[in-house]
Amino acid sequence: MKAFLILEDGTVFTGVSIGANREVISEVVFNTSMTGYLEVLTDPSYAGQAVTMTYPLIGNYGITDDAESDRSYVSAYIVRELSRIPSNFRCKGSIQDFLIEQDIPGIAGIDTRALTRILRDKGTMNGMITTTEYKDLSEVLPKIKAYQVGDVVTKVTCKEKKHLPGEGKRVALLDLGAKRNIAKSLNDRGCDVTIFPAHTTAQEILDFQPEGIMLSNGPGDPKDCGDIISEVKKLYESDLPIFAICLGHQLMALANGLDTHKLKYGHRGGNHPVKDLETGRVYISSQNHGYVVDTDTLDPKVATPAFVNVNDGTNEGLKYTGKNIFTVQFHPEACPGPQDSGYLFDRFINMMEGAE
Known about the structure:
Blueprint: E1 2-7, E2 12-19, E3 24-31, H1 37-41, E4 49-53, E5 57-58, E6 76-78, E7 81-82, H2 95-101, E8 105-108, H3 112-122, E9 125-130, H4 141-146, H5 153-156, E10 162-164, E11 170-175, H6 180-187, E12 192-197, H7 202-207, E13 212-215, H8 226-236, E14 242-245, H9 247-255, E15 260-276, E16 282-293, E17 303-309, E18 315-320, E19 325-328, H10 343-352
Parallel strand pairs: 3-4, 4-6, 5-7, 6-8, 11-12, 11-13, 13-14, 14-19
Antiparallel strand pairs: 1-2, 1-9, 2-8, 3-9, 10-12, 15-16, 15-17, 17-18, 18-19
Helix pairs in contact: 8-9
């Protein structure tokens, strides 16, 4: 069946329909990962977005047990070519069946390189995927332009507490849209992890008496999380060791008077170099975010930059002055992506043990 991708600037791509047969409007972004499409599809940080995969062939190893959440939250999926015959000893189904089961519409057969160039040149924009051929775009462009991602953290967070038992340090993980491997990375290091819904009050988390707190990744504009930011400020004042990733990093910054802004087209993929400003070493990181923390007016009495993006110079991490708190914009748990920065989980455990 013929399908169309209509961008808010009036550009139209024609391809074939994949996945669920329904019309959707969302924010269109691109991911440069060569593998790990299932982890991308199941990363809650993509809620409200249509994901374009820049790698041309997607689905060749099918669906495996590598999901990062219980379901997919992407609004739509855009690929150059969708493999119809997956081949892998771990394969449990095709990506086409997965998209249908998850009610995710998509489009294949378009020039994803051309689409990516448009998004890089003009910036991230909204788009519609539809099987209806609109002769008059003025009928749909106002609706496309009006779309907003909105409060997606509430949509993706867990509904009740979850517990992953361990013999080590007690960690409270605030689920803002957490990838499964964040809790697993802590659990694999012996931590006893309790996952809390995003709107849990700081007092409830503190009453749990954790030895450390993790703030997870998540979707959307961090400034839409006003109530959560207020609670994060209270966690900051608790003097407990805190490690934050991605959206958690941004919320901690906003809670302490810093600002954030939207990137032109974001960082999404498994090949982003970040520099540790303490050691000078560069790590290749997995990233998925459209917003960054502004450090132009950063007060060193509050925090100091810890990591910087080698490509564009944007902030990739902060160390909070006088606190056992450090935060990073990238994903040290990877999945998909390189494991270069997994040592940060060990640093967090050392902080809880008083070694750092």
